[in-house]
Design goal:
By secondary structure, this protein is mainly α. Helices cover 73% and strands 0% of the residues. It is elongated, with a radius of gyration of 24 Å. Pfam families: BPD_transp_1. It is a multi-pass membrane protein.
């Protein structure tokens, strides 16, 4: 991310001077002086090492554009994105698991085919199309919900829950298709397994077969893919936040890249990486809980 930002044309010094009233973009001497002041005259490997050294001491640096501490900038936006992503994730998992297993238990029947076709259609739908359609229907035509997610400074998005409905629905529309398909594929394999057929032959009730054998063994392999979906909710909601004017970290990341604000770009990339690692770690732990034999395989 750091190298990519440095390869972009112009830098933060040029952006600052281009925004200064009457500067006309600044003279070469002014640009050179501001680069020296901001530390941009040093080679980029040195700037990166300085940033990494500060990170080891818990310092994320200072914005080159606003002069604010990067930690404050992220703190203002991270909570908003976590609320949006958290609500979407809480709703995504039961929807994907419920519909995926339901379709797997009806393999080849009408319910399975309708669910699979719908999931494929949703998976192929771009985020901006889903968001635009939802705005057109529920905000403009029916006027049930606001078209933008206005969040006043210093307030939580939960204070205006109506503004969260369409962004969350847009994320679910795009994410549900892939999640349902992968749960359906794994659950279909489990329902045809020998131990599931034997359980049914021994007269074990269908509900117990589903909860005791199908669900745990279908979810364990699918958890990694579900974890990638949850990680994407934090790092890849750029389009949704832009369409709904939602003040999250993706919106801040786009602005930081546009202004070549290297410390902010680096810190936001770090936050997204940490969230991704945390999501996969939680998925591994849940897999161990769901399938006890995974805890003992390494001991054999």
């Amino acid at each position: 991310m750091f190298a990519g930002t440095t390869l972009l044309p112009s830098d933060a010094a040029e952006v600052v001077l281009s925004r200064s009233e009457g500067a006309g973009g600044g003279t070469p001497e002014q640009i050179a002086a501001l680069r020296t002041q901001l530390g941009l005259d040093r080679p980029w490997p040195q700037r990166y090492l300085d940033w990494a050294g500060g990170l080891l001491h818990g310092q994320l640096g200072t914005s080159l554009i606003s002069g604010r501490p990067v930690a404050d900038i992220i703190g203002d936006r991270l909570g908003n994105t976590l609320i949006l992503a958290g609500i979407a994730a809480v709703l995504l998992v039961p929807i994907a698991v419920g519909l995926g297993v339901w379709a797997a238990l009806r393999q080849g029947r009408a319910g399975d085919r309708v669910t699979s076709v719908t999931a494929i259609g949703l998976q192929a739908l771009p985020e901006f199309v889903a968001a635009t359609v939802l705005i057109a229907v529920f905000a403009l035509a029916l006027r049930w919900l606001p078209p933008v997610s206005f969040v006043a400074a210093g307030t939580s998005p939960l204070a205006q829950p109506a503004g969260l409905v369409l962004p969350v629905a847009s994320l679910l529309t795009v994410m549900a298709g892939q999640s349902i398909r992968m749960v359906r594929a794994r659950a279909g394999q489990v329902t045809n397994a020998e131990y599931v057929r034997m359980a049914r032959l021994h007269g074990i009730p269908e509900r117990r077969v589903v909860w005791r054998y199908v669900l745990p063994n279908a979810l364990a392999p699918a958890l990694q893919l579900l974890a990638s979906s949850v990680a994407w909710l934090v790092g890849g909601v750029v389009v949704v936040e832009q369409v709904f004017a939602y003040p999250g970290i993706s919106d801040e990341l786009v602005a930081a890249i546009a202004t070549r604000d290297e410390p902010v770009v680096q810190a936001l990339a770090l936050v997204m990486a940490v969230v991704t690692i945390a999501a996969y770690t939680v998925a591994d732990l849940l897999a161990l809980v769901l399938v006890p034999k995974l805890r003992t395989e390494g001991l054999r």
